[in-house]
């Protein structure tokens, strides 16, 4: 570790304030983060691309006086481009790809004063709920090194949970912010569809299901980061509804009396693991104790139909990605170039038609309206983030030739999050309880479309009522 003994006492905004008050320099913060990375990453394998020299040049040049001035940061090794650096999408097939421009979101991170110093591990193309790519090997959960940190932002979550830095970039196309936040005991907000930009290369991800933000220890870092990076960019195909006020200001307001629906069962009626169900019931009791109206209720869903249409949208995008990468390399992608599950997803897309894709798009729009009707009776919907606490490494290995076992594990582990990628609603995982064997359990709260404000107000209230700041893994 470095010499900054009280580094862990500060969130991102707190570190930035130290810089603004000239109590510490961006270079000193970067040195501390790099010292921690050198000490901890060999145990975790969270950071797979080191951009240390680029970070030092950025600091020497002088960082902007943004809300996160001088704060060390990590980008996820998936889609988000930083000019002159490598992005591999967690895949051997993309190794050596050097970006010749920045993503729009990268520009906004840099303008906020952040200092990226590397990229975090992701499963190949972000396709699963763990982080064990063949290209780099598994990332390990700081709470138990034999367990998964979740995915696809598992490298980001492991680095933040271990104390390398207070916040890191993450993205979520089926739960990939909320799942690792839950697995690693962090706060993770998936914003409303189109709240953060995906340009200039894409208008949307996975048919509008994917979006980027961060994982963090504190709620206020998430709110302030969304203030700094949210909003449409020129050329975006559509935009999220404008917020009433800055999200950081929302945290200073009381949430009022919220009507909260809660549920502990999967869409097929099956029970989640006992520790998870108990955590959600205790979360509901906590919300009642804070004055909210809580009742057991859930939207009616057809999990098989959801899975079919989700697979169509994701599969088409994966097949396109492999086609484009093959064209860029001058040699088409073959089965051995990518992992088994990636290849099967892309091959499955070839059996579907344009009509199937249109039907899948129509379905997620219909789901948005179905959930909007359900949410008309509630301010917030509470359910588990995951069906189980963090699972052992290897269970969701994308090289697993037993595809049936792999799909069964996916259904068991991550049955809740993908719905809200389809509907585009803001959804957050909050680390309120831990399992009997000491693993974090996420409570997932979902709001109405465009209403991150209510979620941030509630999250701030929960963080104050049952703080998790000082719950850190012993690593």
From TrEMBL:
Residues in domain Amidase? 28-455
Which Pfam families does this UniProt record tie to the protein? Amidase
Signal sequence segment: none
Listed SUPFAM superfamilies: Amidase signature (AS) enzymes (SSF75304)
Cross-referenced PROSITE patterns, in alphabetical order?
A: AMIDASES
Gene Ontology MF: a single term: catalytic activity
Q: What is known about what this protein does?
A: Hydrolyzes indole-3-acetamide (IAM) into indole-3-acetic acid (IAA).
Q: What is this protein called?
A: Indoleacetamide hydrolase
């Amino acid at each position: 570790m470095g010499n900054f003994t009280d580094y862990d006492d500060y969130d991102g905004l707190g570190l930035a304030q130290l810089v603004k008050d000239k109590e510490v320099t961006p270079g000193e913060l970067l040195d501390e983060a790099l010292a921690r990375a050198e000490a901890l990453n060999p145990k975790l394998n969270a950071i797979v691309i080191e951009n240390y020299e680029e970070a030092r040049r950025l600091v020497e040049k002088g960082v902007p006086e943004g809300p996160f001035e001088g704060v060390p940061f990590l980008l996820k090794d998936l889609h988000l481009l930083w000019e002159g650096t490598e992005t591999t999408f967690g895949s051997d097939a993309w190794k050596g790809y050097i970006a010749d421009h920045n993503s729009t979101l990268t520009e906004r991170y840099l303008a906020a004063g952040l200092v990226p110093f590397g990229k975090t591990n992701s499963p190949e193309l972000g396709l699963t709920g763990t982080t064990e790519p063949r290209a780099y090997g598994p990332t390990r959960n700081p709470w138990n090194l034999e367990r998964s940190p979740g995915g696809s932002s598992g490298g980001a979550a492991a680095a933040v949970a271990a104390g390398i830095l207070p916040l890191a970039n993450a993205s979520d196309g089926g739960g990939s912010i909320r799942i690792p936040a839950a697995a690693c005991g962090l706060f993770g907000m998936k914003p409303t569809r189109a709240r953060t930009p995906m340009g200039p290369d894409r208008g949307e991800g996975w048919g509008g299901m994917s979006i980027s933000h961060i994982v963090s220890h504190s709620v206020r870092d998430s709110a302030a980061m969304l203030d700094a990076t949210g909003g449409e960019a020129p050329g975006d195909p559509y935009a999220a509804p404008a917020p009433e006020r800055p999200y950081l200001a929302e945290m200073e307001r009381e949430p009022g009396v919220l009507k909260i629906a809660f549920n502990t069962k999967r869409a097929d009626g099956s029970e989640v693991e006992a520790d998870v169900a108990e955590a959600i019931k205790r979360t509901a009791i906590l919300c009642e104790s804070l004055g909210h109206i809580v009742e057991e209720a859930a939207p009616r869903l057809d999990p098989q139909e959801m899975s079919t249409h989700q697979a169509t949208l994701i599969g088409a995008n994966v097949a396109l990605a492999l086609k484009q990468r093959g064209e860029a390399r001058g040699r088409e992608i073959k089965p051995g170039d990518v992992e088994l599950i990636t290849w099967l997803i892309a091959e499955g897309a070839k059996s579907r038609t344009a009509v199937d894709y249109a039907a899948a798009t129509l379905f997620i729009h219909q789901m948005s309206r179905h959930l909007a009707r359900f949410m008309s009776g509630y301010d917030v919907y509470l359910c588990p983030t995951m069906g189980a606490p963090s699972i052992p490494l290897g269970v969701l290995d994308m090289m697993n030739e037993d595809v049936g076992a792999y799909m069964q594990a996916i259904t068991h582990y991550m049955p809740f999050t993908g719905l809200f990628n389809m509907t585009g609603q803001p959804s957050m995982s909050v680390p309120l309880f831990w399992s009997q064997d000491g693993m974090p359990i996420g409570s997932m709260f979902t709001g109405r479309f465009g209403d991150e404000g209510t979620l941030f107000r509630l999250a701030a209230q929960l963080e104050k009522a049952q703080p998790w700041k000082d719950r850190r893994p012993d690593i």
